[in-house]
């Protein structure tokens, strides 16, 4: 009997490398409004809590809320056109998904990325792979709140005891804990092993092969 019936994946930093496109859209918004741009390393630390928080962290301290609103809109205008420029799957992850599906697991994505971005990217890079893919939407709390995870469980009719959550950050660790379900954290994403361990992660894997073993043993 397999341990899990469903694997729920985070998107950015877990199944897709999206950092450069996020950085480019953030910097487009910042420069368009006369603010200094951010480095890739800075943006790596800013991501994880959704685009609004990314913009707030990228803008200079004390930026007026109305200006933040304009930055947010400018980011989205640019990202809608450029979310595929440099984004790509992590090596070995598409093959991992096929192996998991062949083993009978159902697969889903839950992300703090805006919903249109989640659906576009899943359709482009993982066509037909996921049974559900949910992103940020009005009226639904973002991760680390468990709301999006709970929505997937309800949509697919699978209990949290038979599901596992996979992500790459402290936000994902907290999401799994808040949802009351098992988690596995990958170390190839936007956080280092040291950062993950400092946040309390103990079930950390370094490769898609190691993740496959962890999910199917």
Rg over CA atoms, rounded to whole Å, is: 17 Å
CATH superfamily of the largest domain: HAD superfamily/HAD-like
In the residues, how many domains can be counted? 2
Helix content: 40-55%
Strand content: 15-25%
Cα shape: globular
Q: Sheet bearing the most strands, described?
A: 6 strands, parallel
SSE succession: EEHHHHEHEHEHEHEHEH
Q: What is the CATH class of the largest domain?
A: Alpha Beta
CA-CA gap between termini: 10 Å
Major sheet: order of its strands? 5-4-1-6-7-8
Number of helices: 10
Ranges with pLDDT <50 over ≥5 residues?
none
What would you note in describing this structure?
This protein is of the alpha/beta class and 217 residues long. It folds into 2 domains: 6-17 and 88-216, HAD superfamily/HAD-like (Rossmann fold), CATH 3.40.50.1000; 19-82, Putative phosphatase, domain 2 (DNA polymerase, domain 1). It is 47% helix and 16% strand. The chain has a 6-stranded parallel sheet with strand order 5-4-1-6-7-8, sandwiched between helices. The protein has a two-stranded antiparallel ribbon with strand order 2-3. Helix 1 (19-32) packs across helix 4 (65-82). The radius of gyration is 17 Å and the shape is globular. The termini are close together.
């Amino acid at each position: 009997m397999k341990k899990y019936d469903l694997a729920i994946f985070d998107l950015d930093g877990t199944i897709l490398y999206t950092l450069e496109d996020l950085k480019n859209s953030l910097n487009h918004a910042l420069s368009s409004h006369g603010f200094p741009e951010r480095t890739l390393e800075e943006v790596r630390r800013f991501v994880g809590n959704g685009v609004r928080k990314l913009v707030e962290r990228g803008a200079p301290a004390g930026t007026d809320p109305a200006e933040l609103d304009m930055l947010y809109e400018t980011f989205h205008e640019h990202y809608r056109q450029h979310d595929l420029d440099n984004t790509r799957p992590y090596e070995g992850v598409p093959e991992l998904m096929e192996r998991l599906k062949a083993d009978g697991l159902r697969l889903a994505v839950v992300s703090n990325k805006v919903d249109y971005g989640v659906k576009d990217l899943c359709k482009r890079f993982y066509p037909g792979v996921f049974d559900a893919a949910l992103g940020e939407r009005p009226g639904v709390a973002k991760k680390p709140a468990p709301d999006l995870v709970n929505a997937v469980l309800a949509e697919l009719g699978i209990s949290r005891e038979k599901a596992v959550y996979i992500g790459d950050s402290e936000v994902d660790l907290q999401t799994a804990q808040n949802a009351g379900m098992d988690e596995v954290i990958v170390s190839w994403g936007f956080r280092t092993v040291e950062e993950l361990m400092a946040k309390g992660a103990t079930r950390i894997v370094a490769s898609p092969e190691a993740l496959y073993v962890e999910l199917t043993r």
